[in-house]
Amino acid sequence: MPPHRNSIGADRRPAPPRRRRSADNARLGARVVAMMLSALILVVTGYGWSNYRHLLGGLATSDVTDGAGADGATDILLVGMDSRTDAHGNPLPANVLRDLHAGDNEASLTDTIILLHIPTDGSSAVGFSFPRDAYVQIPGYGRHKINSAYGRGKEAAIAAQTKRGVTDPAELARLGGDAGRKLLVRTIEQLTGVSIDHYAEVNLLGFARITQAVGGVPVCLLASARDAYSGANFPAGPQTISGANALAFVRQRHGLPRGDLDRVVRQQAFLAGLTQSVVSGGVLANPARMRDLIGSVQESVVLDRDWDVLAFADRLRGLAGGAVRFTTIPIENASYDTPDDGEAILVDPRKVKDAISHTIEPPATGSSETSEIPDSAAAQPDAAQSDAVATVDVLNATRAAGLAQRVRTELANRGLPVGRVGNAPARSESVVRHGADSAAAANRVAALLGDLPTETDESIPDGRIQVIIGSDYRGPTAPRFAPPGGIRLDDPNRQATGNSPEAITANGIPCVN
């Protein structure tokens, strides 16, 4: 066996010029995952039990978790692995690595990390994305970039097993992979306070064969792209990609206007196109293509050993409508200089735990955020403000769970009478609406919430004010960890990022950088 290289956390390529990353680097499109989960349901429940058993029979599994937790909810760690081996630990051939522009770095780095929380009834889901360069505490190793946790655990296990006399490369790869996954799970659990129930890993290099199995993936670029590091060489406009080109498409970050952020958006667009190819491209009805797809999945996907995927897919039927939202963990400093790991993204574990806990726990007024709170229970304003008294109702027009309740509590703490909280149709602009006699009170509310615009609405009763929180809200209690924007693949008027122009689409596929 050749000497094992200690390359944990090392960059594969020369670092690009430093730039400040946006806090929404890791924000992911909710609808993409909804479609992918829907595709899973179609494949598992629609293609037939015998084929499902055939798929599982060759699927790689790993001893990672202890199975479902006692709370009934399901928390899944989804990992995208940039690895030089397949799902079973077999080295990829040199010609494949060359064609895929894999480079010569042998480290096992997790380029995509998502914690997906599905409540007991399975009707919705929320995912938390972790930037790969997040600087966190790795149990037993101190603070390092989160994408190195897997590799650190794997290398330590391989070294220990080698000392014990294990020499078979496949066995070492299996034991090392199990240890790496367990360390990554422990790292996420320690950072978030969430117990991981299940684990799913996709070898990103295996995506090349999956795209070939489905007959290619439709994508669209706003401008031509060329990058020697990833092998990207694409014209502008709509096109269908597969194999090495598909991998280059999702891996490129050099030469893109916003670096990693544009790469994240590309990955979302790619997943949308992949889902379209599987669901709408006749793959499910084509036995030959399904055989190729199953074989590709078997080569590139690893699941935890205790996961009953068929039962899980059955639970997900309620998600087919797209009741999935994604956000990123809170970020303190997107350009933090570490002592040993170069530039990283600084996060505060306490804020991460608080953000996740608040998001997955239903608001006190119910998950739909609709409730009526007696006005008499609200805090009373002081005498100096008695000339501008009106009861404030707060409506949430965003995807941030519990936001209306938090704003209501903030107003109550400021001494304002508060009424009900509820939901409103999605919108980007926040506004304070009032009747003709409540302009002064509305102006005060607007000032307290970050100088929101106000408008008169004759439908609002006297003595009542209505606050509608849109996705542009930046006032008190705003979810800093979930900035506006993100790609919405089912909305023709979506925006690719918070400050980007309206997205361009080609036959339903978003055009991206």
UniProtKB/TrEMBL annotation:
Keywords linked to the UniProt accession: Membrane, Transmembrane, Transmembrane helix
InterPro entries in UniProt: LytR/CpsA/Psr_C, LytR/CpsA/Psr_CW_biosynth, LytR_CpsA_psr
Disordered: region residues: 1-24, 358-384, 485-513
Pfam family, one: LytR_cpsA_psr
UniProt entry tagged with the keyword Transmembrane: yes
Biased composition (Low complexity): 374-384
Parts of the chain that traverse the membrane: 28-49
Residue ranges of every copy of the Cell envelope-related transcriptional attenuator domain listed in the record: 110-278
Record-annotated LytR/CpsA/Psr regulator C-terminal domain positions: 391-473
Domain of life: Bacteria
The family this protein is said to belong to: Belongs to the LytR/CpsA/Psr (LCP) family.
NCBIfam families xref list: lytR_cpsA_psr
Name of protein: LCP family protein required for cell wall assembly
